[in-house]
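[09:14] KT: can someone run the structure on this one? pasting the chain below
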Amino acid sequence: MSLRTALVDALAMAGTMTWTIMWSLILGFSLSAVVQAVVRRDTISGLLGDDRPATLAKATGLGIASSSCSYAAVALARSLFRKGAAFTSAMIFEFASTNVVIELGIILALLMGWQFTLAEFVGGPIMIVLLALAFRVVVRKKLIEESREQAERGWAGSMEGHAAMDMSVQGEGSFARRLFSAKGATSVSHIYVMEWAAVLRDIVIVLLIAGAVAAWVPDSFWQTLFLTDQPTWSKVWGPIIGPIISILSLVCSIGIVPLAAVLYSGGISFGGVVSFIFADLIIIPILVIYRKYYGTRMMLVLLVLLGVFPLTMVPGGHPVELLFGGFGLVPDSDSVQVTQESVAWNYTTILNIVFLLLSAALLARFVRTGGREMLAMMGGSPDGMGVSAHGGHDETRASRHDVQDPSPDAEHGHRGSGHG
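[09:31] RB: done, structure tokens below
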């Protein structure tokens, strides 16, 4: 095979994967934007002040509602921690907001089958319980105090501005009234585009990697790596090798699903896929951010025997494997659709057209209401921007700009603070 042919095959694989999941990505980000438009982040931090089971359940629910890319979730967790949230609650929120979310479930169903979507929402709570227990045992009060001192220094990491902004609609009224107001539409458009800006790089990278892996790596390699000729050991080995591959892939968030589909079709176990997907918060760049946010000691605690996160993910993948295997819910690897053969006039094409039109409308409103200025501040300092983008601000913060709402019923324009 010539180099040109190999590149064409990889790009074709990546292109068809993109077309398959496009509408679901737009739907997921749209739903996330709607929720974030009506829920204030200060409200979230106020609910996570301790690590009791009830509070951790709230952290899980709020994380699911506030779905984010991995980098934005890590930055937001630090922001909540600085505002008074308990460290364990902030970490649970971080995990839930990237790994137990609607858009991840939709893409899993499209590429791999509904069983993997169910595994996400079964395995996620298992991981969360294990995380909570691990933090309670390993993380001491003194270490948390040291980490809070480090966090209060406000070192800029990745997506700082994105985490610091609060674009929720302020004021009175019901959920529907705030959402369908002019400011609500503007808020949704801003959050939608900013969420895409935060995760687009990772999605593009992982689609290219998945396309190249699917086109170039022979099945024999995966069969050897995943011990497919030894079914029992394969189920034990999968949840161990899955997180390691995830760390080495250097990609994260929901864009990792196409690569998971390639691995499953290559022979990794069902539980291995679950562990692989849930390991997006321990890739090397994020570990570097943990050190900057919380200090070296806390990062080392997270890395004990490959880190607290992997320690929970490895045993967490095994019960999922046993549970789903016991009920006969593990799909055959041959049934996983890595890509469709070609773009055709079917429900995928129709849904893509509909949701691309929705995306274009949100992008147009984003541009018309001053959203472009926000993009330049996505990686800014967490202490250099206001708190609210819709009617509220903190006078002690710097860098505030006006975002004009073109609608006739907008009151005094759409107030915007610097956003990252």
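[09:33] KT: thanks! Strands lie at 400-403, 414-417.
[09:34] RB: yep, looked fine to me
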